[in-house]
Automatic annotation (TrEMBL):
Pfam family, one: Lipocalin_4
Name this protein carries in UniProt: Lipocalin family protein
Residue ranges of every copy of the Lipocalin-like domain listed in the record: 36-136
Domain of life: Bacteria
Alphabetical list of InterPro entries matching this protein: Lipocalin-like
Native organism taxonomy: Bacteria, Pseudomonadati, Bacteroidota, Flavobacteriia, Flavobacteriales
Amino acid sequence: MRKIIVLLVFSVFVFGCKSTSSPVTTKLDNKTEVALKGNWNVTGVTYPGSEYIKVTSFDLVDSKCFVGSSWKFVSNNNKGHFDLTGSGCTDYSSDITWYINKDGQFVMKILNAAKAKNVNQGYVLKVANISESSFQLIDHINVGGKPTDVVYQFQRIN
């Protein structure tokens, strides 16, 4: 009887502490991942009102500091790396882990010299307009109570 009560209390605790964040599908879109394999530069970051407001991307720096950044995506192990070296911005470099799910979401963790399993914060963006030479990542943010899209334009490095 005691075991049943302990089990019941434990199950209430587990279900009572369930995450309230939006579920992210983990079924991979391997074809799209392979299309992004390689080296890329961010050629532009755009969003409505960009001349008036400042957006901090990925809790790191001003979104405009991502223009000129270089990214490497490895599709067979979902690892990667990016370097920020924009003028007037602090240089930053980090390994990442990433994947694209069947819902067209680009899911990324910035590792900062930590193992992916030890990083509990990630980012979910929409991947769009994929071609051999370019693609976009779109981050949905809230600015003054209004939903806004921040669009990162990527160009393949040959």
